[in-house]
Amino acid sequence: MNARRAVRRFLPMVLVACGGQAAGPAASNDLLVIGYDREPDTLNRFSTHILEDIESCVVEGLVTTDERMNVVPLLATEVPTLENGGVRLRPDGGMDVVWRLRPGIRWHDGVPFTSADVKFTVDAINDPTYNPESTDGFDRIASVDTPDSLTAVVHYKEVYAPYALQFARGTLPKHVLQGRDIDRATDYNRNPLGTGPYRVAEWKTGEYILLERVPHYWRGDEFPKIRRLLFRFVANTNTRINQLKSGEVHVVALVPWDKAREVERVAGVTIHRMPGNSYEHVTLNERHFPAFADVRVRRALAHAIDRELIARTVLDGLAPVTHGPIQQMSWAYTDSIRRYDFAPDRARSLLDSAGWRDANGDGVRDRGGQPFTFTLLTQAAFAIRENVAQTLQRQLRDVGIDARIQLVDGTAISQLWFEGKFDAMLHWWHMGADPELTLFFAADRTPPAGRNINYLADDSLTKMLYASDRTVDATRRRALLVSAQRRIAELAPEIPLYSVTRLDATPATLVNFKGNPTNTGIFWNVHEWEIVPRGR
Amino acid sequence: MLPYIGRRVAQAIPLLVLLSVLVFALIHAVPGGPLAMYLENPNVRPQDIERLRHALGLDRPLVEQYAAWLRGFVAGDWGYSFADGRAVTARVAERLPATLQLLGGSIVVAIAAAVPLGVVTAARRGGAVDRVATAASAAGISIPVFWLGLVLQLVFAVALGWLPSSGRSTFGAGGVLDVARHLVLPATVLAAVYAAAWSRYLRASVGDALAQRYVVAALGRGVPSRVVLWRHALRNALGPFVAVVCLDAAIMVSGAVVTESVFAWPGIGSLFTESLARRDYTVLMALLMLSATAVIVLNLVADVVHRALDPRVGT
What we know:
The structure holds two protein chains of two kinds. Chain A has helices spanning 3-19, 53-58, 115-126, 174-177, 186-190, 237-246, 260-264, 295-304, 307-312, 344-353, 383-398, 410-418, 438-441, 459-469, 474-491, and strands at residues 31-36, 63-65, 71-73, 87-89, 95-100, 141-148, 151-156, 198-204, 208-213, 228-233, 251-252, 269-284, 366-367, 370-371, 373-379, 402-408, 424-429, 494-507, 510-511, 530-531. Chain A is α+β, with helices and mostly antiparallel strands. In chain A, the strands form six sheets. In chain A, strands 8-9-10-1-11 form a five-stranded mixed β-sheet. A five-stranded mixed β-sheet of chain A has the order 16-15-17-12-18. In chain A, strands 4-5-7-6 form a four-stranded antiparallel β-sheet, with helices on one face. Chain A starts with a helix and ends in a 5-residue tail after the last strand. Chain B is an all-alpha fold. In chain B, helix 4 (88-123) runs antiparallel to helix 9 and helix 4 (88-123) packs parallel to helix 11. The termini of chain B are close together. Classes of the chains: A alpha+beta, B mainly alpha.
């Protein structure tokens, strides 16, 4: 066969092959495809970090957090409180929490889920041979009693205010993991046994994880509505958006803000905006850059920054300006705190009074011959953050402060803040559902003991924060946290910029999508998600 | 030939050891470590980090860590991934076929484009084809891989819907055709630079061959010019060309890192990107040692092939 004949013969075949429909099938109750930004390291909720989207479809906690960040019961019949007798403060300073489990729940292999699993989970996490990501809270538990198969009484050595979230990540199945090295239990870690609406059907490394519905989910045979969920790993953001456009994926979680307008234009796709629980801010490291130890200087910086302008322009109106570390949807939020409006003249006079004047006329303030020059550390390859950093730099320049931007990759930046090696840093914290602030602002919680990387040391604030950690009564705890927020605003240890809005793209035909501002992820109510084609 | 190959392999071993020391020192010098990203979670406390550091042996002196790594590596125990706790050998082995497939596809595409282009432009220097090809190869060499990848996705997947935008297979589908359709775009993107470079190389070496006296003599004997070009000149130019292809094939792995990330191709390139972001030292070491070995081996292959094709190249 000569070349020309070969081309004549094969070209039509190639064209037919290429002309086949490339875009995948539309989202349906048979299959929903999620474009996911990374492959999970493990599906063990206690060993992984940050996002538990896939895990939460399989493994259920005793409670979960809903779209308003309320703690709601899941495998427990109710959330224990002082009022309902589920929480008892002991005279010795400790406390007991009584978890009553929903009857009739079975693990996917048919074995009943009982209080023995709760006890096993606590023991496993406190066992030094297992290395979970965090032992927070578990290490304050002295023991767990199981008076009957549906009751677990957790004895804490001390009062622990965020007790309600202790088992939000779920429990480990005793009958599968007892006596095993959980770190190396690959069968469980890659295909965890749960009680949730889905189970792992296939994990194709580097490509996808397929979940399929379990028969007889405890909420009723009508749940979940969607038969299969396919999480495709697509690390590159642009590629993920292209896949959404071509219909190869149906859901993209955490759409980057600079892609929001592009995604809004894709036919058949809805963008859900959800106020987030994180806040972007500038941390001022008083230890590394002593000029920040003067409250007048910190307040001057806060007044020098036009946050409304940043929100309107760089952030394209997607994220609201914030004034403190606790965000609006939290039950502990207050807006009656001191605010720092954009007032460059006020900033200038504060800096003058602190002794920072431009003596040599070069446009940068100085004191004792030292110019007010500091390094603003932020994450590289994060377009919005780089733009915000440049805006801050220009606005600070207007009041005579010289900020130099340093861009570093995400992993390196974690190390730098942990070691306190920076002057100022533009970043956000992923805040937990519980409004604890102690870790971030108590005087003795500087690294390595915590995340007070402002190196703020204020006695009255520290006392309030620790008191709030030891208060279980919600009203009294809120009062303490409100006082703490006011004190933080007075001290201005950091400059809050904006609340981080969460954007998720789903098919317009998806109903019952509720979203979630916490690490729980958007799949917490996946059992009720349903595709309802229009016109039906 | 065999003693020569033996000598080259013996030379390669100290080189690889030296390289491993350098690479080990370098990746540990970069700030951050396998545990740094855990710090993003507020529930992870410093005592958790210390506990994990100790459990993973990251608190031991660097020299001790290196010695332990080298002992294991030589014995075939490449350690466990810091990311998912699985054996590094397993993680690399499951990703390798996808990369070999991508590299194979790209080399085929690049050669298929470079050979005819190189020969035709050498024969008709300054002609219309030559000028268009010159411009195209300048573009091929200078266009960034990630950009070309995204544009091809927009055209062929989003706008035309002819090809899948990324991934290696369609879920629920299967077969050779499905894999081939997924391979088209990434292989084209990865091949673009090499097709351009190799066609320029071949253009120059065929051009040199055409200027030789035996070509004039062949033409004088009445051999048709097409035969002279494709049989005589090309064959003489082929030795160095094959050597260049072998050398570049090893370097192609670095291009695969970007291409695989853009196309969500589940090979060792995307594994490298993921491992770099979270400083998964054991996986990084394995991948870097593998690619260093590949470069050394393909260098050797290039030499051997060159010798076989051209007896004038001496020892």
